[in-house]
C-alpha cells in the first residue's frame, strides 16, 4: 500500500493523480476537491499531515492515527472526523476482523487512512479513475458508506446461510460435533456486531445530532438510507445471536434426550436380567441339596423357567408402557 495516494475528484484532471509532490501540495491550497489516501501505519504519515494539512489540529491527527479505533463521528468546524469499519477481505483474514478506515472531510479535502488494505477503497479508486467519482465531499462520504454497507450485507448473507445450515443439521441429524460450529458462528456474530452497532451510531450522529456543513440535504437523505440499512444489519445480527442460542439449546436437549434414552434402555435390560442373575446364581452355589442335579432334563427346565420369567417381565413392562 502506497504511503500517499492522491486523486483529483473535480476539475480538468478529475480521476487523475497529481504528477508529483509539488502539484499535490499546490492542489491542497486551491479550492479543488482532492482525495488523499494514506497508510496510517507508515512512520512518515504524521509528518506529512502536519506539514501539508495545517488545518488539522494535533488532537484530530492523533485520532486519525490511532492503532485501535471504534466507529464514531464528530463534526469539527467546517469538517468532520469519521471512523468507520469495512469487511476484511484480505487473503487469510477473517471477514469479521473488520478493517478500520479513518476519514477527515471538509469542503475541499478528503483524507482517508487505513492500517491494512481495504477492498472498498480499491473499488472506490477504480470508480474515480473511470470518471464516476464523487463531485462533492458529501457525495464521497455517502458513496464510501454505501460501498462499506454493501460488503457488510454480503457477509451478513453468508452468516445467515451458516445459521440456516446449523439449524437444519440440528433438526435433521444432530451431532455433538455441531456444538463447535455453533460456538464459532456465535463468536463471529458477536465480533461483527461489536463494530457494526457503533457504525450505526456514528451515522446517526451525522444525521441527527450535528450534520457536517459540506453535506447537502440530498446527500443527507442518501446517508439516511445507508443508516437504515446498517440498522437492519444490527437487527439481523441480534436475531442471529438469539437463533444460535435456541439452536444450541435444542442441540443440548437432543443430546440429553439421546443419553437419557440410552440410559433407559440399559435400565430395562438390567431389570430383565436381574431376576435371571438371581436365579442362576442361586442354582450355581456350590452346596449340597440343589434339586435336579441328577436329572438330565433339569437344565432345560431351568432354561424354560428363565424364558418364562423374561416373557413375564416383558409383558409387565409392556402393560405399563415402559417399552
UniProtKB/TrEMBL annotation:
<keyword id="KW-0472">Membrane</keyword>
<keyword id="KW-1003">Cell membrane</keyword>
<keyword id="KW-0813">Transport</keyword>
<dbReference type="GO" id="GO:0015095">
    <property type="term" value="F:magnesium ion transmembrane transporter activity"/>
</dbReference>
<comment type="similarity">
    <text>Belongs to the CorA metal ion transporter (MIT) (TC 1.A.35) family.</text>
</comment>
<dbReference type="GO" id="GO:0015087">
    <property type="term" value="F:cobalt ion transmembrane transporter activity"/>
</dbReference>
<dbReference type="InterPro" id="IPR002523">
    <property type="entry name" value="MgTranspt_CorA/ZnTranspt_ZntB"/>
</dbReference>
<keyword id="KW-0812">Transmembrane</keyword>
<protein>
    <submittedName>
        <fullName>Zinc transporter</fullName>
    </submittedName>
</protein>
<dbReference type="InterPro" id="IPR045863">
    <property type="entry name" value="CorA_TM1_TM2"/>
</dbReference>
<dbReference type="GO" id="GO:0005886">
    <property type="term" value="C:plasma membrane"/>
</dbReference>
<feature type="transmembrane region" description="Helical">
    <location>
        <begin position="297"/>
        <end position="317"/>
    </location>
</feature>
<dbReference type="Pfam" id="PF01544">
    <property type="entry name" value="CorA"/>
</dbReference>
<keyword id="KW-0997">Cell inner membrane</keyword>
<feature type="transmembrane region" description="Helical">
    <location>
        <begin position="263"/>
        <end position="285"/>
    </location>
</feature>
<dbReference type="GO" id="GO:0000287">
    <property type="term" value="F:magnesium ion binding"/>
</dbReference>
<keyword id="KW-1133">Transmembrane helix</keyword>
<keyword id="KW-0406">Ion transport</keyword>
<dbReference type="GO" id="GO:0050897">
    <property type="term" value="F:cobalt ion binding"/>
</dbReference>
<keyword id="KW-0862">Zinc</keyword>
<dbReference type="InterPro" id="IPR045861">
    <property type="entry name" value="CorA_cytoplasmic_dom"/>
</dbReference>
Amino acid at each position: 500500500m502506497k504511503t500517499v495516494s492522491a486523486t483529483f475528484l473535480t476539475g480538468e484532471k478529475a480521476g487523475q493523480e497529481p504528477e508529483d509532490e509539488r502539484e499535490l501540495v499546490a492542489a491542497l491550497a486551491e479550492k479543488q476537491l482532492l482525495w488523499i489516501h494514506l497508510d496510517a501505519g507508515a512512520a512518515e504519515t504524521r509528518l506529512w499531515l502536519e506539514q501539508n494539512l495545517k488545518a488539522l489540529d494535533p488532537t484530530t491527527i492523533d485520532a486519525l492515527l490511532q492503532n485501535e479505533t471504534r466507529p464514531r463521528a464528530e463534526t469539527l468546524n467546517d469538517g468532520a472526523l469519521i471512523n468507520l469499519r469495512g469487511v476484511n477481505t484480505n487473503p487469510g483474514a477473517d471477514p469479521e476482523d473488520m478493517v478500520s478506515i479513518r476519514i477527515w472531510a471538509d469542503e475541499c479535502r478528503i483524507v482517508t487512512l487505513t492500517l491494512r488494505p481495504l477492498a472498498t477503497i480499491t473499488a472506490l479508486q477504480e470508480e474515480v479513475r473511470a470518471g464516476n467519482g464523487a463531485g462533492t465531499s458529501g457525495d464521497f462520504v455517502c458513496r464510501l458508506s454505501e460501498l462499506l454497507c454493501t460488503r457488510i450485507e454480503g457477509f451478513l448473507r453468508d452468516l445467515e446461510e451458516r445459521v440456516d445450515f446449523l439449524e437444519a443439521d440440528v433438526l435433521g441429524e444432530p451431532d455433538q460435533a455441531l456444538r463447535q460450529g455453533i460456538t464459532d458462528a456465535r463468536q463471529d456474530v458477536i465480533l461483527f456486531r461489536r463494530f457494526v452497532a457503533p457504525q450505526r451510531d456514528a451515522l446517526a450522529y451525522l444525521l441527527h445530532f450535528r450534520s457536517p456543513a459540506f453535506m447537502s440535504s440530498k446527500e443527507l437523505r442518501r446517508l439516511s438510507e445507508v443508516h437504515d440499512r446498517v440498522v437492519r444489519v444490527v437487527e439481523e445480527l441480534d436475531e442471529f445471536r438469539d437463533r444460535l442460542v435456541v439452536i444450541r439449546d435444542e442441540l443440548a436437549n437432543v443430546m440429553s434426550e439421546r443419553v437419557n434414552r440410552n440410559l433407559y434402555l440399559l435400565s430395562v435390560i438390567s431389570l430383565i436380567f436381574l431376576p435371571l442373575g438371581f436365579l442362576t446364581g442361586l442354582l450355581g452355589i456350590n452346596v449340597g441339596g440343589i434339586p435336579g442335579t441328577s436329572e438330565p432334563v433339569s437344565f432345560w427346565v431351568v432354561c424354560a423357567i428363565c424364558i418364562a420369567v423374561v416373557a413375564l417381565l416383558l409383558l409387565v413392562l409392556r402393560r405399563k408402557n415402559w417399552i
